[in-house]
Write a structure and sequence with these properties.
single chain; alpha+beta; Nuclear Transport Factor 2, Chain: A; Glucose Permease (Domain IIA); 6-stranded antiparallel β-sheet; 24 strands; 24% helix; globular
Length: 414
């Protein structure tokens, strides 16, 4: 082979090899915005998984943080976070300044798509709500009651998880006598699902539930969205706008956000551990406070550290307490019905700021309102809320038809 030809072949080969190396290099060194770099976003943070029986206060104090500094952080949390939502298995990440004895950065992972962050700047904490993008999907499900079966069994066979099927069963049982349900009756459900990274999260919400009976009258229920996640009006209603899953109980406020749950806590004023015999709800001064159900006012006046208080006696040995009020609108001996405005949110007595302390006594003993009083939203929608609900019913019906067609098409393909 001539020398010139050999040199040309070698040169061409080197060019090809160099080009391949360059292409591979470019492929592995793409622009920064295209790189999939795995970075530990919590590097340098303490990680703490909440265990059974652990309180948030106890966890924070375990880092040798003084009570007053723990209270500073938890008060900042309470401005934005439902403090009753901390559960075993949830993860906290924090940075502790051991010299200043302060938590300077705090992450609370509520679930896969929601995180809360508080960072110390000067003497105050700044709050950030961090939400991961997720997809919403509407799923249509049909479940049939078989011989000897129940709503729950039918829903389980349809593949609905435990927490969601209990929500659906509560709605059905609010409208129908379960003893009269016969085999062959069927249920339609539209679920609002959340999809994150291709995985369905277990936080589905039924927005439509319909019952079609053999002998019982058909019924429908629709989700009402009041436009505010904290609104006590959010929930399932029948077509007339009457709230379901409750007999005669509502929340004491129209907007609900827990700032301090029932149980032992660091007192926000004394800084010592004390039993908190109620639930504190956030609220602005002057916000109306309602009787949660019918009863008789047994006291209405000033009670030491509770400030201005209304107490109501209800049937069955139950008593409710509404404390730190700015105004009282009822008198001792007065009969009240559910939803009666009995006062206004305030900060009287021993209080760090305007809020409602809501307590429940059962047979003379303080009990947890969350587990001893079945509280739901307003009894009946009226006025503008009812008009909005009627529009939402029409939208949900269209969503049901679309999801139903999609389900039928998928079944035909199988």
């Amino acid at each position: 082979m001539p020398k010139k030809t050999l040199i040309a072949i070698i040169s061409a080969t080197l060019v090809v090899v160099s080009t391949l190396i360059l292409l591979l290099t470019l492929k592995n060194c793409s622009r920064p915005e295209e790189q999939q770099v795995l970075i530990n976003q919590y590097e340098g943070y303490e990680e703490r998984v909440i265990k059974d029986g652990e309180s948030l206060f106890a966890i924070l104090l375990s880092y040798n943080i003084p009570n007053k500094n723990v209270i500073l952080l938890t008060n900042a949390m309470a401005e934005h976070i439902d403090m009753s939502g901390f559960k075993p298995g949830q993860v906290l990440h924090l940075i502790v300044d051991s010299e200043a004895k302060m938590i300077t950065d705090f992450y609370y992972t509520e679930n896969e798509i929601v995180r809360h962050r508080l960072t110390l700047e000067g003497e105050k904490y700044n709050y950030q709500l961090l939400k991961e993008p997720y997809e919403r999907k509407y799923t249509y499900i049909k479940a049939t009651v078989t011989a000897g079966g129940t709503f729950l069994i039918a829903l389980e066979k349809a593949g609905i998880n435990k927490s969601v099927r209990q929500k659906i069963a509560n709605v059905l049982e609010s409208q129908i006598s379960t003893g009269g349900v016969q085999p062959g009756a069927w249920i339609e459900v539209l679920l609002d699902d959340k999809i994150y990274k291709g995985k369905q999260l277990p936080y589905s919400e039924p927005i439509y539930v319909a019952f079609h009976g053999v002998s019982l009258k058909d019924s429908e229920a629709f989700w009402y969205d009041d436009g505010d996640a904290t609104s006590a009006f959010n929930g399932m209603y029948n077509i007339k706008g009457e709230a379901l899953a409750s007999n005669a109980v509502r929340y004491p406020l129209n907007n609900i956000r827990v700032t301090s749950p029932f149980g032992k806590r660091l007192h926000p004023i004394s800084g010592t551990w004390k039993m908190h015999n109620g639930i504190d709800y956030a609220g602005k001064t002057g916000t109306p406070v309602f009787s949660v159900t019918s009863g008789k006012v047994i006291s209405a006046g000033v009670e030491g550290g509770y400030g201005k208080v209304v107490r109501i006696q209800h049937p069955g040995g139950m008593e409710t307490q509404y404390a730190h009020l700015s105004k009282i609108y009822v008198k001792r001996g007065q009969a009240v019905t559910k939803g009666k405005t009995i006062g206004a949110v305030g900060s009287t007595g021993y209080s760090t700021g305007p809020h409602l302390h809501f307590g429940v006594k059962k047979n003379g003993r303080w009990v947890n309102p969350k587990t001893n009083l079945k509280m739901i939203g307003a009894y009946k929608l009226t006025g503008d809320k009812l008009k909005v609900f009627q529009q939402q019913q029409n939208t949900i019906k269209l969503q049901v038809e679309e999801a139903k067609k999609e389900t039928e098409l998928n079944q035909e393909k199988r």
